[in-house]
Amino acid sequence: MNTTGPLLTVRDAVKHFRGGGRTVHALNGVSLSIAPGESVGLVGESGSGKTTLGRLILRLEQATSGSVEFDGHDVTTWRESRMRRLRPAVQMVFQSPYASLNPRMKIGALIEEPLKLHTTLSKDDRKKEVRALARRVALSEVLLERHVNQASGGQLQRASIARAIATRPKLLVLDEPTSSLDLSVRAEILSLLGSLKEEHGMAMLFISHDLDTVHAICDRVCVMYLGRIVETGSREAIFRAPLHPYTRTLLSAQLSADPRVTRERLPILGEPPSPLRLPPGCGYAERCPIAETACTTKAIALTAKADGDHSVACIKT
Amino acid sequence: MAIAISEIRAGDRLARLWRRSSSFVVGSALVALLVLTALLCGFVSPYGPTQVLPNAILQTPSAAHWFGTDGNGMDVFTRVLYGARYAIAIALPSAFVMVAVGVPLGLIAGYYGGVVDEVLTRMLDVLRAFPSIILALAVVSATGQSLINVVVVIGLIDAPIFARVVRSEVISIRRSDFVASAVVTGNPTWRILFVHLLPNTIKGAAALLPLRMAWALRVSATLAFVGVGIQAPEPEWGALIRQGAEYIISGQHWVAMFPGIALVIAVFGFNLMGDGLQELTDPRLDVKK
């Protein structure tokens, strides 16, 4: 076990999906590391590869190349039977609680399952722990005896979170955990996640396309575009001084809760290139207002900027 | 909602079930009749199923012998009633074998996919390619004519049907997030298969069960009729029909006819029940009542 290094390191992860004679380039060399207790936001539009990256970290997808290291172990090629011992330490909350909770199990049983699999607690102690977890995520105990179709989205997402934190994981991957929820419920779930982070000191990878959410929760932000991280830095750096033209556009598209605030809107041109045929240079070049010929010819690496904690993959900045 | 349902009286429930699927109600009633007959046959008739009455050979149906007597002087009514026991003793255990063998194979083939699926599916296809009655005939005559052999052979021959139904259901849900969630939670594969996938894929197989039990009865009767299944004087319906067949030409139709009618009713009951179950479990027909 290592205490000083990063908790999670993804190195140069590539994921291609092949099928029907075509190849979808979902991830094209992503590197990312998360320190213990750190919460990292992963933002980008649909199809940018953020969910694939999350699933790759959980080993729900096998990387085409590159590696995933957790807590000092290179788990890239671990068999599922070996991976299982690590599962309590890396948990995930899925986008839709309706789809990610077994419809045939009671909510209480779903929360109990990780305890059953990974602890030696007696049945009574497990039940006690399930009730404590339910209280922790503000889930009424009545619901523990219900099935998935008898609870609301917000209640189910609380249950999913309780299930994910039952084994006190070191890393929690959250794949758009609030995007299927009503706005009012969304705020409650976010404040719950915020307080869990404080309390357990667990690291989080928060996948979202909602910048407000990321701003509220994350210490650091990674911006993904076309299967690559195009910019990464502290929350302040990204939100105050975004460097990549894509990040700037993304931020300018964000709506403010205050209707009097008007932001300069940077228009975004066209569609992202197809992940079936990657352009040779910067993936954003053909939509970028400041692109020049050099942008379209060779791949552009993520390079650190002045303060060291802010990197960007753009030759124009 | 749960409270409201329990308050509805049983009669109302039955009426509602009748509206949703009358075949299920009729079929279940016939199957219930079969089960009752099997349980109570010892109390209904004064004769034993293989008791020979030397003075009553090939008698026409009468008050003393409702279905007449056969060539050995056995009471046909008693033997038909006792046949219900054989029907149950064949239908239930062979259904158990079908499910116990077919369902896990379907789960494994569907979940693992790829080569595992390919190999399993091909093997099951080969088994299905044989005409099943001929296959049953061959295997039972090779292994010996006991009830256990008949049941196991019928169950094994039919297992691929269950495997296929479950496999296709598993394929349709194995990419669901709740399966991914089960993996992330650290479930061993057997738990993913039997705790997470099985309850979500078993509906189709369950609805198939009565239909395949009807099929098991028919095959068992066929085997007995051609003489490789359960043998006379055991009161199995197929065996009774075989026994009676030789008297049909000479006019003593009752020896074969009554067990034949019993067999038809039992098969009909299971089939109706199965059709009804499929009606009840088909989501397209799931009207709000």
From TrEMBL, chain A:
It comes from the Bacteria. GO terms for cellular component: plasma membrane. PROSITE patterns: ABC_TRANSPORTER_2. Residues 8-251 form the ABC transporter domain. Its main location: membrane. It holds the Pfam family oligo_HPY. One of its GO terms (biological process) is transmembrane transport. GO terms for molecular function: ATP binding; ATP hydrolysis activity. SUPFAM superfamilies: P-loop containing nucleoside triphosphate hydrolases (SSF52540). The keyword Transport applies. It is found in: Cell inner membrane. Keywords: ATP-binding, Nucleotide-binding, Transport. PANTHER family: D,D-DIPEPTIDE TRANSPORT ATP-BINDING PROTEIN DDPF-RELATED (PTHR43776:SF7), TRANSPORT ATP-BINDING PROTEIN (PTHR43776). Belongs to the ABC transporter superfamily. This is ATP-binding cassette domain-containing protein. It comes from Aquibium carbonis.
From TrEMBL, chain B:
It comes from the Bacteria. It is a multi-pass membrane protein. One of its GO terms (cellular component) is plasma membrane. GO terms for biological process: peptide transport; protein transport; transmembrane transport. The chain crosses the membrane at residues 21-45, 86-112, 253-274. The keyword Translocase does not apply. This is ABC transporter permease. It comes from Aquibium carbonis.
